[in-house]
Design goal:
By secondary structure, the chain is an alpha/beta fold. It contains five helices and eleven strands. It has a single domain, classed as Dihydrofolate Reductase, subunit A (3-Layer(aba) Sandwich). Helices cover about 20% and strands about 30% of the residues. Strands 1, 3, 4, 5, 6, 7, 9, 10 and 11 form a nine-stranded mixed β-sheet that branches. The chain has a two-stranded antiparallel ribbon with strand order 2-8. Strand 10 and strand 11 form a beta hairpin. The protein is globular and about 45 Å long. The mean pLDDT is about 90. Its EC number is 1.5.1.3. InterPro entries: DHFR, DHFR-like_dom_sf, DHFR_CS, DHFR_dom. It is an enzyme of class 1 (oxidoreductase).
Length: about 220
């Protein structure tokens, strides 16, 4: 198989509670600025060899859940997956529309030029950033164009009520499919020193303290 035909590795990045909850009414049930800063730093990338841009793939509701002043996510190629082929992304630079996860990956394999970006950037890493349906699709539906082989999981130790979006019950080491990487491996992969162990941060939505841990899981095999 030539390098052009190799499946693109996808990294899921997600924060989830002990019950795998990840959202409520198409938004995060919590607001943790330090955790969000981690998300931004990781998805932008700081690898020494990096000379292009990372990509983030998200569903339409996830795109709409980002405050307009922060769209698109800067310093990254944004791909929005929507069945609405007329969905308007405006004139946001480095932003593209795709009809499905496979079509998003196909687009990234040959990034089109635009009047705003006449020279397409080189693609580095590709992150799947939500929502729940897209996470589930990436994790459970194999496709020759991509392989979801890594999860950067912020494991919240606190549950939140009234959530309506959930991650599939992974990662799990019970079947030997996934393995939790060491903290050193996480730091080596992202390219900088990630805080280790439990972190405590005040929920800015008005809640109390939230305890969480930055984890990385890698896929060992297809179950």
């Amino acid at each position: 198989m030539s390098s052009e035909m190799k499946p693109i590795p996808l990294t899921l990045i997600v924060a989830a509670t002990p019950s795998h909850a990840i959202g409520r009414s198409s938004a995060l049930p919590w607001r943790l600025p330090k955790e969000m800063a981690y998300f931004a730093r990781v998805t932008k990338g700081e690898q020494p060899e990096q000379d292009g841009l990372n990509a983030v793939i998200m569903g339409r509701k996830s795109w709409e859940g980002i405050p307009e002043r922060w769209r698109p996510l800067q310093g990254r190629i944004n791909v929005v997956v929507s069945r609405q082929d007329t969905f308007d992304l405006g004139d946001a630079p480095h932003s593209h529309l795709a009809s499905s996860l496979p079509s998003a990956v196909s687009l990234l394999s040959s990034i089109p030029s635009t009047p705003i970006s006449p020279t397409p950037p080189k693609l580095n890493r590709t992150f799947l950033i939500g929502g729940a349906q897209l996470y589930s699709h990436g994790l459970t539906i194999p496709h020759p164009s991509y392989t979801a082989d890594r999860i950067l999981l912020t494991r919240l130790k606190t549950d939140f009520s009234d959530c309506d979006a959930f991650l599939p019950p992974v990662p799990s080491a019970t079947k030997g499919e996934w393995k939790q990487a060491s903290h050193k491996e996480l730091c080596e992969w992202v390219g900088w020193e990630v805080p280790e162990g439990d972190r405590t941060e005040k929920d800015r939505t008005g809640g109390g303290d939230v305890v969480y841990e930055f984890q990385m899981w890698t896929r060992e095999s297809r179950a």
